[in-house]
TrEMBL record:
The keyword Kinase applies. PROSITE patterns: DHAK (PS51481), DHAL (PS51480). Residues 72-273 form the DhaL domain. One of its GO terms (cellular component) is cytosol. This is Dihydroxyacetone kinase phosphoprotein-dependent L subunit.
Length: 277
C-alpha cells in the first residue's frame, strides 16, 4: 500500500479536498514508485509512504434475510436504473453541455456500467441496506465529479435508515429515501430552489412518503413521486443557479432544465415502471 498527499488535480479553482483510493498490483505499484518530475505528479523521490494492509474482519455469523440473488424486486429496480442511465447518456450529456461541463451523462453511465458489472458481487448481501452500501462503494470508486460522492452519500444514509428494520415495507423505503436526500443536502449544501438535482429529489421524496402515509398503493405513490420530480425539474428552467456547475454560467442557464434533476426523473420513472411490471 502507498500513500501520497499533494495537489495532483485541480478544477476551476474550487476549494476542497479529495481522497482517492486505487486498487493496484505489483506492476502498477512499481510505476507509481518511480521518480517523476512532472508538475501533476511531483514524486521526486519515488515512494512516499508504505502502509501495512489489514484484512477486513469476517462477516458476523448467523446473518439472515433474503439475498439480492433471491430478491427479484430489488434486483429488477437496480437493473432498470442502470439500463435507463445508459440509454440516457446522450440526452444528459447534451443537457449538461448547455449549462455545465458536459460530463453528467458520461459519469452516470460509467456508474451504471460498474453497478451492472458488480451486481453479482452484491448477491450475497443479506439485507437491502447492505446492497445499498455496496452500490454506494461502487459509485464512490468510479463516478467522478460531484454526482458520485452525492449519490454515494444518499445511498449510505438510506442504508442506515433501513438497517434497524431491514427495509421490508414501502413505508420503510420511503423513510430511507427521505433520509438519503437529507444526507445529500447536508453534504452538498443545496436546498430546493438552488437549481440542482435536489429540486427533483426533495419533492419526490416528500410525495412518496406522504402518498404512502395516506394509504396509497406503492404504484400510486411512486407515480406521485415521479410527477413531483417532473414538476420540480421543470421549475429549474426558470431558476438562477446558486449551486453546482450551472452556477458558473449564470444567466445562460435560464431556459434549460437542470441536467441532474432531469436524471432523477429518468431513474425514478424507471424504478416505477420496473416495480409495476
Amino acid at each position: 500500500m502507498r500513500a501520497w498527499a499533494g495537489t495532483f488535480l485541480s478544477a476551476l479553482e474550487m476549494a476542497g479536498v479529495s481522497l482517492t483510493l486505487l486498487r493496484v498490483d505489483d506492476e502498477r505499484l512499481s510505476l507509481l514508485d518511480a521518480a517523476s518530475h512532472t508538475s501533476a505528479w511531483p514524486a521526486l523521490s519515488g515512494r512516499v509512504a508504505q502502509v501495512a494492509v489489514r484484512a477486513a474482519p469476517p462477516a458476523p455469523p448467523g446473518a439472515s434475510g433474503a439475498t439480492l440473488a433471491r430478491d427479484a424486486t430489488l434486483r429488477r429496480a437496480i437493473e432498470a436504473v442502470c439500463e435507463c442511465l445508459l440509454a440516457a447518456e446522450p440526452i444528459l450529456t447534451e443537457l449538461d453541455q448547455r449549462v455545465g461541463d458536459g460530463d453528467l451523462g458520461i459519469s452516470l453511465a460509467r456508474g451504471a456500467r460498474a453497478v451492472q458489472l458488480e451486481l453479482d458481487s452484491y448477491a450475497s448481501a443479506t439485507t437491502p441496506s447492505a446492497v445499498l452500501r455496496g452500490i454506494s462503494a461502487t459509485l464512490r470508486r468510479v463516478v467522478g465529479g460531484t454526482s458520485g460522492p452525492l449519490y454515494a452519500v444518499m445511498l449510505l444514509r438510506a442504508a442506515a435508515a433501513l438497517e434497524p428494520s431491514g427495509g421490508a415495507t414501502a413505508r420503510q423505503w420511503a423513510t430511507a429515501f427521505s433520509a438519503g436526500v437529507d444526507g445529500m443536502m447536508e453534504l452538498g449544501g443545496a436546498t430546493p430552489g438552488d437549481r440542482t438535482m435536489v429540486d427533483a429529489l426533495k419533492p419526490a421524496a416528500d410525495a412518496l412518503y406522504d402518498a404512502l402515509a395516506q394509504g396509497a398503493s406503492t404504484d400510486a405513490a411512486l407515480q406521485a413521486a415521479v410527477c413531483a420530480a417532473i414538476d420540480g425539474t421543470s421549475r429549474t428552467a426558470s431558476m438562477h443557479p446558486r449551486r453546482g456547475r450551472s452556477s458558473y454560467v449564470g444567466e445562460r442557464a435560464i431556459g434549460h432544465v437542470d441536467p441532474g434533476a432531469h436524471a432523477v426523473v429518468l431513474w425514478l420513472a424507471a424504478i416505477g415502471e420496473a416495480l409495476s411490471g
